[in-house]
UniProtKB/TrEMBL annotation:
NCBIfam families tied to this protein: HVO_2753, PRK14890.1
Any one Pfam family match given in the protein's UniProt record, by short name: HVO_2753_ZBP
Protein name per the record: DUF1610 domain-containing protein
Domain named Small zinc finger protein HVO-2753-like zinc-binding pocket: residues: 11-54
Organism: Halocatena pleomorpha
Length: 58
């Protein structure tokens, strides 16, 4: 992943810019869109919504 791609990652749950190793990146279970979650939202199990298909998850 390039530095530019890392700089553009935003948490799908809260919208903050993601930096660091504790963030998670994964594909949406419904459509495969790349999603990112920050450490805080992962720990708190905050809901996320895929911007492409509307799938929501914990």
């Amino acid at each position: 992943m390039s530095a530019e791609q890392r700089a553009q990652r935003k948490c799908t749950s809260c919208g903050i810019n993601i930096a660091g190793l504790s963030a998670a990146s994964f594909d949406c279970p419904e459509c495969g869109h790349q999603l990112h979650r920050c450490e805080r939202c992962r720990k708190q199990s905050n809901l996320y919504e895929c911007p492409d298909c509307g799938f929501t998850g914990p």
